[in-house]
Amino acid sequence: MGFISHLANIARFKLGAITPSCGPMKVQWELTYHCNLKCQHCQIWQIPTDEINKNTLSFDEQKKIVDDLAKNGVRHVSFSGGEMFLQKTVYELIAYAKNLGMKVGGNSNAFLINEEIAQKVVDSGLDMLYISMDGDNVLTHDKIRGVEGAFDRVFEGVKNLRNIKPDMKIFFNTTINRENVGQLVGVARLAKEHKISGLTIEMTNTFDKYSPNNELLLTDDQLPLLRDQIKKLFDEYSELLPHHAGYFDEFETYLKNPNELYKYRCLAGFTTAQIHPNGDLYACPVAFEKIGNLSETSFKELWFSDKADNNRKNIKNGKHPICWITCISPANQYLSYLSPTKFHKLLAPKTLAHILKKI
User: Fold this and answer.
1) Which residues contact 356 (CB under 8 A, 6 or more apart)?
2) What pLDDT sits at residue 353?
3) Residues 6+ apart with CB under 8 A from 174
4) Burial of 35 (0-12, 13-18, 19+ CB in 10 A)
């Protein structure tokens, strides 16, 4: 299924359709909930090992789903966890998806990326890797990540990957919280020093298993500092920021008046989908309403089911939890510019380049 089909599908979305005309452009897939860190903004690491093992698909089941995604025109699959590299067969799965013509991204804390793992990552054909970076110094990052040495392992992992493939696309992803809100510029500085491809930034979200420790949440008194950091980011490191300024402008809205963000109709369940380790299919990471399970029913049958349509109808009508995260929110806002008075905002070369790079 070609890019034109996905553009037509997005046009249907913009015109108010509930049922898509094709499969999603991108699928995010949490392969496993096994994790080697103890992050303060995520509770996955507290899931018992027995429960994780019982609710994780086999490698053969995962390959079958990859086949199914490819048949339905998915252009990009992004693997995560937990920690994706704790699944020993992940490199084979990446290569399998690549051989079917998909772009493949990954999300990692980089703790495991020694020279051997780096070679496997490069050999797999992974297109891009997002690495969590939650502070501009060892004390902050390791405190948030809950494991000593996490900060140094990030840069060791980057070095190991770049020693093998100097042009590999590596991004930092930073989640804003009370501990690091004053360090966003410092993170950008580190990214530039280490020739990182870009920096994605999002607010700490509070849904389900990702619920953060309450003392980590940003508060109103820190908003002036956040505004100052964002201004400096665009003044000094704009080349690292793939998302337009409007996305950052709504950070304060998400914190103080999140219901205002319902003005952006969400693409979740229309051009994107989310898979959990057990094969459960959702519209997005918020996972507020399960569509079905891919080990029991084909992707096509679930994607075009009445249940999926009802899910999309609820999203269209604002009957869903609000988030503001990089996987979908910038695209929701971007599409809101598709009107005669706002169309010029679509023409920023950097934003267009970022979109094209992802598809």
Assistant:
1) none
2) 57
3) 132, 133, 134, 180, 184, 187, 199, 200, 201, 202
4) buried
Q: pLDDT tens across 221-260, in order? A: 999 999 999 999 999 999 999 998 999 999 999 999 999 9
pLDDT digits (tens, 9 = 90+) for 77-105: 999 999 999 999 999 999 999 999 999 99
* Distance between CA atoms of residues 115 and 122, nearest Å: 11
- Mean pLDDT score of the chain: 92
One-letter amino acid at 215 equals E
Q: In what order do the strands lie in the sheet with 103-108?
A: 198-203, 169-176, 128-132, 103-108, 76-80, 26-30, 272-275, 280-282, 292-293
Q: Helix crossing, 184-193 with 223-236: angle to 10°? A: 30
The bridge status of strand 76-80 relative to strand 26-30 is parallel
Q: What angle do CA 23, 25, 26 make, to 5 degrees?
A: 115
Q: CA-to-CA distance for 43 and 50, rounded, in angstroms? A: 16
Please tell me the predicted confidence (pLDDT) of residue 349: 57
Cβ-proximal residues to 88 (8 Å cutoff; 6+ apart), any chain: none
Q: Given this model, what pLDDT does residue 343 score?
A: 46
**Would you say 91 and 121 are in contact if contact means Cβ atoms under 8 Å apart?**
yes
Cβ partners under 8 Å of residue 288, min gap 6: 207, 282, 320, 321
Nearest to 66 by CA among 55, 54, 57, 77: 77
Tokens describing residue 24:
């999603």
Of 311, 314, 313, 316, the C-alpha closest to 273 is 311
pLDDT > 90: percent of the chain: 83
Which token pair is 46?
């507290």
Q: What are phi and psi of 91, to 5 degrees?
A: -65, -40
Taking alpha carbons only, the member of 336, 282, 331, 335 closest to residue 311 is 282
Token reading at 9? 């599908």
Query: What is the rounded distance in angstroms from the CA atom of residue 181 to the CA atom of residue 179?
Result: 6
Q: What is the mean pLDDT of residues 275-298?
A: 96
Q: CA 157 to CA 68: how far, in whole Å? A: 32
